[in-house]
Amino acid sequence: MTSVFLCNCGSEISKVVDTAKVAAAIEAKEGAGLVSVHNHLCDQHSLKRMKRLIMDSGAENVVVSACSPELHEETFSRVLSSAGLSPSRLKMVNVREHCAWVHRDKEAATDKAIALTCGALAKSKYLDDIVVEEVRIEKRTLVIGAGVAGTNAALELAKKGIETYLLEEKPWIGGVTAQVGMAFPTDDCAYCIGARSERAGVRKCFYRADLMHHPNLKIITNAELKSLEGSVGNFTVKIEKKADLINEDCISCSICEEVCPIEVADPFNRGLTQRKAIYKQFEAVPNKYVIDFEACTVCKKCEEACPERAIDFSQRAENITLNVGSVVIATGIEEFDPTKVSRYGYKKHDNVLTQLDLARYLDPAGPTAGELALGGEVPKSIVMIQCVGSREKDFNAYCSRLCCMMAIKHAIAIKKRYPGVEVAICYIDIRTTGDGYEDWYTKALELGVVFIQGKPSEVINKGETSIVRVESANGEELNIRADLVVLSAGIESSQKTRETAALMGLELNKDGFIKVLDPKVRGVDTDRWGVFVCGGAKGPTDIPESIMQASAAASKVSSLLLRDKLINKRNYPLVDVELCDGCEVCQEKCGFAAVSVDPVACKAVVNRGSCHGCGVCSANCPSSAIQLLGFTDDGIFAEMEGILASNPTREKIIGFICSECGYASSDLAGVERFTYPESIHLIDLPCLGRLSSVHILKAFEKGAAGVALVGCMPGRCQHNSGTSAKDNLGLAKEVLRSIGREEDLALYNFCGAKSHDFAHAMNEFANKRVKQETLNVEEVC
User: Fold this and answer.
1) In the sheet where 653-658 sits, what is the strand order?
2) Which among 248, 367, 379, 439 could disulfide-bond with 273, CB atoms 3.0 to 4.6 Å apart, if both were Cys?
3) Do 691 and 724 meet the contact criterion of CB atoms below 8 Å apart?
């Protein structure tokens, strides 16, 4: 039996809704047990009385007809818990914001309150106990990528006392940042990280930060992620560490490098210099040599010369398994390959470089010790071309954000050191957004850097010099002589970022970077709970922004891991193995990799730790084998039929609303007293993705005058699964078209603040002429 509690909310409800009449109507319904009316159900006296009544009546379920569940669902849930019932046995009816505050006709409002409460009563018998899952949390974390973002995130976590593994595919940490040399906005080296000690200053060079000896930080270089299994709090990570062929006894004496006969292009210096097959990057962390096995001929001269016997050609790759509670992805960026824009002659002409190539020349630790001397001579004229591979529909449509500042930084550095060198920057727009970044632009102008608005069409080689053809913004065609052409190539997601996303089942955004859960409020969360992203893996970011994002990710991880257990209260789906045929539709539809099909049993399996409770798996299961607790098909049908069967002479429109923006806009419409017709009867769902075409069509079969779907704005669904509702709506429209009722079905998308739009849409939809042709779902389907 179900106990029903009705609230007058002082007179906020009862002055429009006759709660005594509602109580009398509900008492006559099958399944109703105790029915009581209270003046203020949320006050402490009423809550104590409510607990006694639940216990005395032996209620199995509870319906509360009162205000918005957003206000007091937790309050009443605690009462159920104290009375010995699962909180999942509660169903609330919002007769204040959805009825009393938006209607004026007392009789019609009362009839609507009866219908809504009847629907809740009908659904209550399909409520189940939802077992609260407690997950033990591994107090370790893995950070993937040891560039500036990954290193800062790892160090912050280590400082918080969390055991942290920092994984880097290259032999040393640093990433692209290590190649940059001097960096904006401070015009000093790019290697800063937050100081290890809170009293040791604000920054520290990561080459001197003693990272290898931090008690909570383990750096694993020359290694890559092979698999990630499990869920938040308990991930199992498998890593393959490649053989360095040099052990920990290496003292970096360089004798091995001196005797090595093999030389290859050095990718760290952008191929501008050569290195040996056994080598070490400048200021390497870890401070040891490695052997490039692809270049090495195994002559073993290095082994013979090594005074510490540190070289070990018998080393093999090592497989490492870690158990961690969370993961941070900081896999960085790559520079766009300008050879794709053949008209600029990159890799064809020696005097065409990229900004990253130029950074190596200007770096005191670079191939020319900071001298801009190509072929032994300083160029007399330099032209920089912006937006190469960025803001171009054939390559990357987005702005790479860093390129303007990189060009301006290098232009200023050149003009300061070589005042007589002419520097021109050809641009579409100059974008210098950041603290003090506009000052750099002004400084460049003061130093004589020329800015030309116009995109160069081509670079024509003329031996040791080039001609850059530009059509300026005023239509003038310019032919600019340049001894050096520098391409400001755009920023792209790294190959490692794309590989990591694929391995973890993470979605990429339209620009190829890892998509965050919500760009406004969950900017470092991914759609896999417990996995976070920062720095260039989520988009083009400069050093300050990468460090801020690293701190945000570290904060998220620490708030997750610095607790004993994780309590999962979400609604979750159950699989009826008798009905499940292993069709994999649920697996394909789930946006969180929470549902999979066991390859042996051929049955769907739900990972609760990854499940977000959206219900999209239930909505799309062709055999109804997977059902979301609290929102099963039977429960949704029962609530809908309970509403439509109450006083069938009144026209009723069913409004399915999602728990986020749909519900928020309807609640706010009530708070602001925006009126709409009493025919609108709202049913809440965790997400519109839970809604199937069958639910929609059943509403029409049972007599609904119309069905309205109200969800989040496009691209803003809290579960990223609401788009499936649009597909299911399309299927239902096709069926309704056959009887001329397709206009009686509509989808609306609002943000939570659009209460006026919600009320306007409900008025407009309800005031349409509604056709009366009946629908038999079994016949049309």
Assistant:
1) 680-685, 653-658, 706-711, 745-749
2) 367
3) no
Cα separation, 160 vs 675, in Å, equals 52
Residue 593 has pLDDT above 70, yes or no: yes
Say how far apart CA 581 and CA 564 lie, in whole Å. Answer: 38
Report how far apart the first and last C-alpha atoms of the chain are (Å, whole number): 35
Given a contact cutoff of 8 angstroms between Cβ atoms, the answer to whether 339 and 162 are in contact is no
Q: Please, which residues bridge with residue 484 across strands?
A: 382
Return d(Cα 94, Cα 451) in angstroms, integer.
62
What does the alpha-carbon distance between residue 676 and residue 669 come to, in Å, rounded to a whole number? 9
Calculate the alpha carbon distances from 771 to 60, 70, 767 in Å: 41, 35, 12
pLDDT (0 to 100) of residue 364 = 86
CB 450 within 8 A of CB 423: yes
Question: Which residues have CB under 8 Å from 318's CB, separation 6+?
Answer: 240, 241, 243
For tokens 């050096």, the residue is 484
- Residue 695 amino acid letter: H
* Interval 164-180: pLDDT, tens: 999 999 999 988 888 88
Instruction: Please tell me what DSSP assigns to residue 96.
Output: I
Burial degree of 601 (CB within 10 A; 0-12, 13-18, 19+): exposed
Task: Quote the pLDDT of residue 197.
Answer: 60
Residue 12, φ and ψ in degrees, nearest 5: -60, -35
Which residues are CB-contacts of 120 (< 8 A; sequence separation ≥ 6)? Answer: 63, 65, 91, 92, 93, 639, 642
* Separate counts of helices (H) and strands (E) for the chain: 21, 39
Contact partners, residue 663, CB within 8 Å, separation at least 6 = 70, 657, 684
Q: Angle formed by the axes of helices 633-645 and 106-124, to 10°?
A: 150
Q: What is the 3-state secondary structure (H, E, C) of 313-355?
A: CCCCCEEEEEEECEEEECCCEEECCHHHCHHHCCCCCCCEEEH
Q: Is the pTM of this model over 0.85?
A: yes
**Cα separation, 409 vs 384, whole angstroms:** 12
Q: Phi and psi at residue 723, in whole multiples of 5°?
A: -65, -25
At 147 the three-state DSSP class reads coil
Closest CA to 433 of 338, 280, 297, 542: 542
Q: How far apart are CA 704 and CA 702, in angstroms?
A: 6
Q: What is the pLDDT of residues 325-357, one digit of tens each?
A: 999 999 999 999 999 999 999 999 989 999 999
Euclidean distance between CA atoms 301 and 604, whole angstroms: 58
Tokens representing 361 are: 């020349």
Secondary structure class of 607 (helix, strand, coil):
coil
CB 179 within 8 A of CB 233: no
Whole-number Å distance between alpha carbons of 130 and 81: 12
CA angle 504, 509, 512 (to 5 degrees): 80
Cβ atoms 270, 357 nearer than 8 A: yes
In angstroms, the Cα distances linking 305 to 259, 289, 311 are 7, 14, 10
Burial 143-153 (b: 16+ CB within 10 A, else e): bbbbbbbbbbb
d(CA 329, CA 345): 35
**Tokens standing for residue 82:** 């104290």
Alpha helices in 562-599 (DSSP H): 585-589
By DSSP bridging, strand 477-482 and strand 352-354 are: unpaired
C-alpha to C-alpha distance for 207 and 204, rounded to whole angstroms: 8
Specify the long-range contacts of residues 472-475, CB closer than 8 Å, at least 24 apart: none
Query: Are 64 and 74 a contacting pair, CB within 8 Å?
Result: no
- C-alpha span between 530 and 89 (Å, rounded): 29
